[in-house]
User: Fold this.
Amino acid sequence: MAVVFERPHALIDVPTHYCPGCTHGIVHRILAEVIDEMGIEGDTIGVCPVGCSVMAYDYFNCDMIEAAHGRAPAVATGVKRTNPDKFVFTYQGDGDLAAIGTAETVHVATRGENIVVIFINNTIYGMTGGQMAPTTLPGQVTQTTPFGRSPQLAGYPVKVCEMLSQLTGTAYAERVAVDTVPHIKAAKKAIRKAFENQKAGKGFSIVEVLSTCPTNWGLTPLEAIKRLQDEMIPYYPLGVYKDVEEGVFPAEGGNE
Amino acid sequence: MERNLMKGNEALAEAAIRAGCKCFFGYPITPQTELAAYMAKRMHKAGGVFLQAESEIAAINMVLGAASTGVRAMTSSSSPGISLKSEGVSYIAGSDLPAVIINVERGGPGLGGIQPSQADYWQATKALGHGDFQLLVYAPASVQEMVDYVVKAFDRADKYRMPAMILADGLLGQMMEPVSFPEINPDAYDKSGWAANGHKNAREHHIINSLYLKPDELENSIVERYKKYDIIKETETEAELYLTEDCDILLCAFGATARVVKSAVNTAREQGIKAGLFRPKTLWPFPVKEINEAAKNAKALLSVEMSMGQMVDDIKLAINCSKPVHFFGRTGGVIPTPAEVLEEIKKIGGSL
Assistant:
């Protein structure tokens, strides 16, 4: 019988530590499919964050590096600058990328670092048990905003794609979601485009993925999907925020 | 051999390039900025990477990334910047990565000052970051030694897969002296067994990591590292012993301070006081055998430091408090003078 749905080679056949209903698994899978389809597993180096995906180094079959909290873009820069012919990606959550690692995030983008950042936005700190993230929505109840996030007390959420698209070094910024099959297909297409950008040397690419955290949201997986659709997508509109077709550097000596 | 007059900071940079350093990531801070400026000019021509990072934190993590792929990588800073790098140094140690970190010390705490200091001795030798780990710490006392120890630091970092530090100070960084560059053939250590530089579908994937959630596994990884440290303590200590054979009073000093102290020792000898100098060139591992040899006939020891007294603790430990150990120091960027040191020698001489 023909096999019609296989595990991607770039994803190792081990049980993951993710909770039931968590969408990390979907994002891992489509990222691994892109690596397989481009045939780049042997030339790819991934950088993990601190957060729920901290142990992603055990799941991806390419070489992997575990970074300190927020520092994945700096680590990836060190890898890419010394190995410009390799594909380099980071896989980061919202606390990692948009709170403790904000400086690294902004500067990796403004340098036009030719890497791919996969950014998981689930509006919460998952690994530490559900505290407020920089992306937590106004009014959202978390362990550290027990009465709902008050903008007066805790400020407003960071809109990462909107922010990074203002930087000249950003070649590509797209926000996607993994709540429905069409959205998952669009998310995979965006990840593929980000890697193709890297192949073509276009500059910094980020794909922000709206994701769920049923455990820390206190919802069932299906309710969590519904929250993503009803509350997150209106606040974080999906779409392409930036796409510099010709790349961010002039053809000659632009990086010098 | 050709000799060039060079500033300490620039000699550090040139030596690193000649030692096969392929990338430098740094952030401006006085009094080490010439090092980065020299790298910016030279590294490019040497086929390497120079990148000014957005912060000290980013710079050390760029070093971590480059080192993970098996490339010789370095960063440099001065005291406040080294504090920021301490997170990354701990991760580098915990991931068993080679890297070279240069600290051209200035006064602290806080923003402190920009004049020379040795007040980061404890930080360098005891706790440059959280957790159980050590880094190799070299203390050059001349521009030539800065060259020689940068070369050695890269070699030993690769050999032992651990971070190595050059602990210099603003005096050494800013002064000019003639230097010669030895013919350097960077030993090619085989990194193919661990480097994360793309598996080319020819081997298992490599993971560079410092996370061990199971206590037994974390303990084992640390115990293995400490076995390596034991070998280093046995084989890598270095010190200069000057007029110690018959000395009554043994002065102890490292780095630029040792030059001041040597002058004082010479003057003391001229005046009939049997003084000697023990100068550790490795601060970790501390030269325990060497100081015991140097102190064998001494009646008292005197540690002279540009701090309120940090190495003095290691001296007491090394000789097991078997003799009185005195301390004299200036701090905050003040450099002790030979006359001040001589006065201290005489004070102690009176009580011998």
User: Anything to note?
Assistant: Chain A has a mean pLDDT of 96. Residues 166 and 242 of chain A are 9 Å apart (CA to CA). Chain A is about 35% helix and 15% strand. The first helix of chain A runs from residue 24 to 38.
